[in-house]
Amino acid sequence: MTRAISLHDVSKAYTQGVRVVDRLSLDIAPGEFLVLLGPSGCGKSTVLRMIAGLEDIDEGQLFLDGEYGNDLPPSGRDMAMVFQNFALYPSMTSRDNIGFPLRIEAPGTDPAPRVDATARMLGIEDLLDRFPAQLSGGERQRVAMGRAIARHPSAFLMDEPLSNLDAKLRNHLRAEISQLTRELGVTTVYVTHDQSEAMSLGDRVAVLRGGVLQQVGTPRTVYSLPSNVFVAAFIGTPRINLLRGLVRAPLDGAMTISLGKQFLRLPEPLCLDHQLLRVQQGREVIVGLRSEAVRIAKPAAARPGEVALTGLVEHVEFQGHEVLVHFNTGSRPAVVPELEAPRPRPGRPARRRREGTVLERLRERAGALRAGPVATLDRPERAEPAPASAEPRVPGDLIVRTTPDIRLRHGMQVPLLVDLAHLFVFDQHGERICPNPERLPDLEE
After folding, report:
1. What is the 3-state secondary structure (H, E, C) of the chain?
2. What CATH code is assigned to 5-224?
3. Where do the record's region annotations for Disordered lie (predicted)?
4. What confidence tens digit (pLDDT) does each residue in 56-77 have?
């Protein structure tokens, strides 16, 4: 049996009334694998604990299979949780750890058949008589997963179960988790700050920032159509190139986006997305380019929709199967708070025309104020010196992915071609306006 989980305007606050989760609404379908993704401290583990009943819900409602579940004790929710630190009883063998919840639920029933079946599923039959101190990290996590699986719960709740493991073992267990949850068909909510895990595991990914849900969708959607600059920067390896640009749209000339010393000339006739950029005439915007949206080639080799830039090689990362080249194009990078800089002071929210009641719009504005701006293009009022222990920033403003057969050295000037079909443009507040805007731009902004 699996179940549906719904959160309606759920909030949670701790000391001094600071909300760690702010009016979160999320529907999880039966059998779905949903990943809660975000940086440390964004509230994702708190959401998981509220679903499990380990944290009280201050505001909002939790529904389990359509029934109100706020007041249900953890034992009445029929869920199994896998913790980051394994949480195994050190005085019990693996067999006893897996069978312990079964003995609690049904004291008169022999748990051995279900324990053995679970051990065969996970391939840990030879570990059943060992104690946790005799197991490696990966073996402990398999036992912890076995304890959850043996209960045959209606939902799995996993709180960063792989974060304490080395990279190779993490990749192996990631594949095992994906296969097991799909074979069992059980609703799974998985918390992680690793976007690689989120993209490879989840049917859908919910991105949180400062306790506020930023976007929820399939891995392909959140990568190819991020709702704002925070999601764009958090999803993808290497991180998306974010550059400060200025839209120039003269009535008698071609539309361009100035990047400082160079510019992107938008091809004519303008597509609908580029036509809508005319509203941003004379305004600063954030230009987003994935590393695969730029290639090394001469202007004569340009395909339809590609425009030329030049870049100075500043750093080359050899990855074996590919090379990441850091170029200096004379552009100014845009800063995403919480990812590249300390969180700025909350500013005045932008005026937007939105659907919904006045109360809903006020709630959205209050949430935006608390979480802070998604991006900042303004200079800080007072520059704070970087700590002496901070690592130097990798040079360059544009990272390009290319093949390992290309030979480049520091200081080379290289021709680049930008595919405008993969161009992202975000407004000053970090919301995506190109491509495929969800709303028409407001002339009063």
Report:
1. CCCCEEEEEEEEECHHHCEEEEEEEEEECCCCEEEEECCCCCCHHHHHHHHHCCCCCCEEEEEECCEECCCCCHHHCCEEEECCCCCCCCCCCHHHHHHHHHHHHCCCCCCHHHHHHHHHHHCCHHHCCCCHHHCCHHHHHHHHHHHHHHCCCCEEEEECCCCCCCHHHHHHHHHHHHHHHHHHCCEEEEEECCHHHHHHHCCEEEEEECCEEEEEECHHHHHHCCCEHHHHHHCCCCCCEEEEEEEECCCCCCCEEECCCCEEECCCCCCHHHHHHHHHCCCEEEEEECHHHEEECCHHHCCCCEEEEEEEEEEEEECCCCEEEEEECCCCECECECCCECCCCCCCCCCCCCCCCHHHHHHHHHHHHHHCCCCECCCCCCCCCCCCCCCCCCCCCEEEEECCCCCCCCCCEEEEEEEHHHEEEECCCCEEEECCCCCCCCCCC
2. 3.40.50.300
3. 370-395
4. 999 999 999 999 999 999 989 9
Structure tokens at 425: 């443009």
pTM (2 d.p.): 0.82
What are residue 35's DSSP bridge partners? 190, 205
Structure confidence by residue, pLDDT tens digits, 143-197: 998 999 998 899 999 999 888 777 778 888 888 888 888 888 999 999 999 998 9
